[in-house]
Specification:
Length: 399
């Protein structure tokens, strides 16, 4: 996917991450976009406008009252001519101004004047990012339809370690491409996605679970939504916010997930079960908290229902049923066996011992396998990129 013939306004604000925006502007330009850069006064303290002008071959706007070649105010001309407006990096100060609709500089005026989609990529010190005021302002922007690209975690310019780093260029580009050129090949389709690791209670306090973060399932739900599908996301407990525009069904146990999936099944075109469903549950969970009185404890476990196999053999089976195989050995053999034994159309196999491909990370490296054909081995990608590739394969079977 390229950005040919797209006009993208890149708003750059006062953050040490400004230098990364130069690379972003360069990549978008190389992909064929016309990139119009607007810099706040604070941004020019970190990087000179000439850096952006050199990679975009376009003049950079820094002043509120500058006119374009046709003597129109730049904030109006840029805003009305944009296919997309991206604010990256977005400082806490700029996020607050945008959230409250201020119009006291060229960037905030451009945001108010445009009808194009707006992407905001925050970058700031971790305590500033986690502050309640910043989070409330981001929620205001989300409620108005802004697309927020979450910052990454790691070492910050302040010397601290935490969340607040500008998202990697590839992640921001994914958001840009999805917004501008996402296919609508799931329009009119109903799909189900499961996510997260189920919790099987031992007593009111303790439970058996697994390391699944839910990130892959949530990426699949968001990708399907962006391609026009009506999405039901059946999710075990995670630390992730429910994706907007998606039917969200929270559950805890495997039995609750089975009930929710079967209830959503009628009329469904495709299901992707990315959840890590516990294979076993405690036969008789205690109604009271168990006390540590003995030197050992014995729990009797019984099998949970195999939701994936049940869906694949159900009278109301969706046309496409996709499973996941998270393996630590014999990846392809185990995945191929699961693909056949459960009567699946596709299976997504990932080696959980591989770097960047385990639980809780933002990337994944998978192999997509169909009943016929060679395995499609993908390189290490963001989970959103993986989600789009999985849906590409599912859509091919749907159509």
């Amino acid at each position: 996917m390229t950005l040919s013939n797209k006009t993208i306004v890149l708003g750059v604000t006062g953050s040490i991450a400004v230098y990364k925006a130069v690379g972003l502007a360069s990549t978008m330009t190389q992909e064929g976009a016309r990139v119009e850069v607007i810099m706040t006064h604070s941004a020019t303290e970190f990087v000179r406008p000439l850096s952006f002008q050199s990679v975009t071959k376009r003049p950079v706007v820094t002043g509120m009252f500058e006119l374009d070649a046709e003597n129109r105010p730049n904030h109006v001309a840029r805003g009305q001519g944009a296919d997309l407006l991206v604010v990256a990096p977005a400082s806490a100060h700029t996020i607050a101004r945008l959230a409250w609709g201020l119009a006291d500089d060229v960037l905030s005026c451009t945001v108010l004047s445009t009808t194009a989609p707006i992407i905001v990529a925050p970058a700031m010190e971790t305590h500033m990012y986690s502050n309640a005021a910043t989070q409330e302002n981001l929620e205001r922007l989300r409620a108005r339809g802004f697309i927020i690209v979450e910052p990454g975690s790691g070492h910050l310019a302040s010397g601290a370690v935490g969340k607040g780093r500008l998202a990697d260029e590839g992640i921001i580009l994914d958001a840009i491409r999805r917004t501008l050129i996402a296919p609508a090949d799931l329009a009119g389709r109903r799909v189900i996605v499961t996510a997260g690791g189920t919790l099987e209670p031992i007593d009111p306090v303790r439970f058996i679970s697994n390391r699944s973060s839910g990130k892959m399932g949530y990426a699949l739900a968001e990708a399907a939504r962006d391609r026009g599908a009506e999405v039901t996301l059946v999710s075990a407990t995670t630390a992730l916010p429910a994706p907007p525009g998606v039917g969200f069904v929270p559950i805890e146990t495997a039995q609750q997930m089975r009930q929710a999936v079967l209830q959503a099944l009628p009329g469904c075109d495709a299901i992707i079960m990315a959840a890590a469903v516990a294979d076993y549950r405690v036969e008789e969970p205690s109604e009271q908290k168990l006390k540590r009185t003995a030197s050992e404890m014995t729990l009797r476990l019984v099998k949970n229902p195999d939701i994936l196999a049940e869906v694949a053999s159900h009278p109301q089976r969706p046309k496409v049923v996709v499973g996941f195989a998270a393996e630590s050995q014999d990846l392809l053999d185990n995945a191929r066996s699961k693909l056949g034994s459960k009567n699946l159309d596709l299976i997504v196999a990932n080696d959980i011992t591989a770097a960047g491909s385990g639980f809780g990370v933002d990337t994944n490296q998978v192999t997509i396998m169909a009943r016929d054909g060679l395995p499609d081995r993908l390189p290490l990608m963001s989970k959103r990129q993986v989600a789009d590739r999985v849906w590409d394969a599912a859509v091919a079977l749907l159509t």
